Amino acid sequence: MKEPLILHLDMNAFFASVEQRVNPKLRGKAIAVIGSAERTVVTTASYEARAYGVKTGMTKYEATRLCPNIIFVIGDNKKYMDASEKVFAILKDYSPLMEVYSIDEAFVDISGSLSLFGSPENIATAMKERIRDALGLTCSIGIAPNKLIAKLASDMKKPDGLVIVKKEDVAGALKGLPIKELWGIGPRLTERLNMLGIYTCDELGRSPASILRQNFGIIGERLCLMGQGIFDSPVAPVGEEEDAKSVGHSTTLPMDVSDKATINRYLLKLSEMVGARARQYGLKGRKVSLTLRYPDFFTFTRQTTLSAHTSDTRVIYNAAQGILNSMRLKSAVRLIGVSISDMIKGTRQLSLFEEDKKREELLSAMDSVNEKFGRATLSWAALLEEGETSGVISPSWRPQGVKRVDVA
């Protein structure tokens, strides 16, 4: 059996690069892609803008302060989806084992492709050349024995890089590397590990698994293995991914809102978007979560568990509204999100009550009309005062299934 050889491809400043390719006047300029809402944040900055310190998540004010000549471009998700699908089509020419990780990232198991295409370098170089020739875009590629190290390697040399980490070189690549650089170890986990005196990957790999289990539960042993560069998650080809663990939508509000009546209208809109997506793919959730963000960007989530799984807009909305009513807001909010989790792929159950039957028929009719003529063609009367929910494409976007969100 051949040892795994995993390639991770990461498109360089993807949204910004697509915009620069489409509009030659933007090439070589400091640009930032933003959402259409007035109070949007930077989703991607070109490398010219990054040289001034502009980063994802910054407000337009912060970006302008660092780079006075920055050009803001409202993102066009359809363009990014089209470019993404073309990139993934190229990757599949080299291996059927291709996993889409996000709209601009993918893992490819090239273990069985070497006899056809030659060395790992040949495969990576061919991919990069074809993407550049077909789309005018660059990417960075990392190749390693597993997904964890391949993703790390693709980030070592940007833009337009190619880094190969052989099995015997994994320990050296991790030695002295801050744990925050490892895929899956975010700020909070980094802070908790630091409190245990663990700052680097090799320190993590040497830590007793029993201590890590005691502090982090079931993931403790996995963290220890990650510190050693051991990661056994296989590449999951398109169509064979794990079932969705949640379905959610969020929106940044045009202005900070403290009035609960206004917040409730957004809750209904988001609940409908969540419910419609879940119904489209036959999914139901039992936990409903409400996420709020204050103007200082402090973000928190509260959730409730329902008595039964659902994809009914009204049930989701009532649960989210109940969470909101149970809390006292410290200030106005700038972002609202609604999601459902604890998912099942449900078979449709026959309703026993006439009211339930009518509601199911109403939702089914709304879904059919909106699928044919566009989202929100039919909507709830309470939403007539609100504009369209705007936003950028989710990092969890996938080319098919419930995670494919065709946003405007």
Helix count from the secondary structure assignment: 15
Q: Oligomeric form of this entry?
A: single chain
Average pLDDT, rounded to a whole number, is 85
DSSP summary, beta strand count: 12
CATH level-four homologous superfamily name of the largest domain? Reverse transcriptase/Diguanylate cyclase domain
Taking pLDDT < 50 over at least 5 consecutive residues as the criterion, the unreliable ranges are 377-384
Structural class: alpha+beta
The geometry reads as globular
The fraction of residues in strands falls at 15-25%
CATH architecture of the largest domain: 2-Layer Sandwich
- The order of strands across the largest sheet is 5-6-1-7-8
Short structural description:
The protein is of the alpha+beta class and 408 residues long.
Key phrases:
DNA polymerase, domain 1, 12 strands, Alpha-Beta Plaits, single chain, 4-stranded antiparallel β-sheet, 3 domains, 408 residues, Dna Ligase, domain 1, alpha+beta
